[in-house]
Design a protein that fits this description.
Elements: H1 2-12, E1 33-35, H2 42-50, E2 56-58, E3 61-64, H3 73-77, E4 82-84, E5 99-100, H4 117-122, E6 126-132, H5 138-145, E7 158-160, E8 169-173, H6 178-190, E9 196-200, H7 202-206, H8 219-223, E10 228-230, H9 237-247
Bound molecules: iron/sulfur cluster (SF4).
Iron/sulfur cluster is lined by residues 51-53, 55-56, 63, 68-74.
């Protein structure tokens, strides 16, 4: 009996990623885009018009990852000007750093914006409460994946908790609807100081497709300090892991 189980385990091989600092995603993954200026920018103007969230600006040429849904339509419409790379290291402490220009070679993390107490208190243990503020469950599933057998983020003491009272910070997903605005405030108030705020996903960063909707209420973002801005639709587990590791001082981009 036991031998058949050992055989199954053996056939699975090693499933976990041995080094989370040494991960390369497939070429198909859409991460940080590279922008190129050409003599004729008419394709970019057409791409900007078809972008569902208005993430592309033409003068000057830029692409706001905090609004981008990574649908890839702009790269199909303007292939000479917009190309998505598989660089997943796109989380940062600065909302402005999410705006990609033709000069951008990486998304800068800006460690100088990290509050000093964060690496001091949380480098060995960080518990987070997740609030889906009208999220569509895609990012929530990716956040769940950070704790699975592949990523095993728990090996660094970083896990999600069932109660805000047992957590050190909140991870917010979704554009923040009016209905979820008050529960989010209550959750945030229940977390002890000093608390970390992580905005996860392009819809959480900007409202995404719903930024003009009357059904959302983003006063939370205006009233509280945000420690991490993580774009993505959904955000890849490695984007989350990389940014959190930078935040608590476990690595440097
Ligand atoms: S990939 Fe992003 S920038 Fe391009 S069209 Fe889609 S949402 Fe807009």
């Amino acid at each position: 009996m036991i031998y058949s189980k050992i055989k199954v385990l053996h056939s699975h091989g090693w499933q976990y990623i041995p080094d989370l600092n040494d991960v390369t995603l497939t070429e198909e993954f859409r991460g940080r885009p590279e922008l190129t200026v050409t003599d004729d920018m008419s394709d970019v103007e057409a791409a900007a018009k078809l972008c569902p969230t208005g993430a592309i600006s033409t003068a000057p040429f830029s692409l706001d990852l905090g609004r981008c849904l990574f649908c890839g339509e702009c790269a199909l419409r303007a292939p000479r000007n917009i190309r998505f790379t598989n660089d997943y290291k796109i989380g940062t402490t600065s909302r402005e750093a999410l705006v990609v220009t033709p000069e951008t070679k990486q998304i800068d993390f800006h460690p100088e914006l990290v509050r000093k107490e964060i690496p001091k208190l949380f480098s060995r243990s960080l518990k987070l409460r997740q609030v889906s503020a009208a999220g569509d469950a895609s990012i929530e599933m990716e956040l769940n994946a950070t704790g699975n057998v592949n990523f095993d983020f728990g090996r660094y003491g970083i896990e999600f908790t069932a109660s805000p009272r047992h957590s050190d910070g909140v991870v917010i997903t979704g554009p923040i609807s009016k209905n979820m605005s008050e529960p989010l405030d209550i959750c945030y108030a229940a977390i002890p100081e000093p608390k970390i705020t992580i905005i996860c996903g392009s819809e959480a960063c900007s409202g995404g497709l719903f930024s003009e909707s009357k059904a959302i209420d983003r006063h939370f973002i205006e009233q509280h300090h945000v420690d991490l801005w993580l774009p993505g639709a959904p955000t890849h587990p490695m984007t989350f892991i990389d940014a959190v590791m930078n935040l608590i001082g476990k690595k440097q981009r």
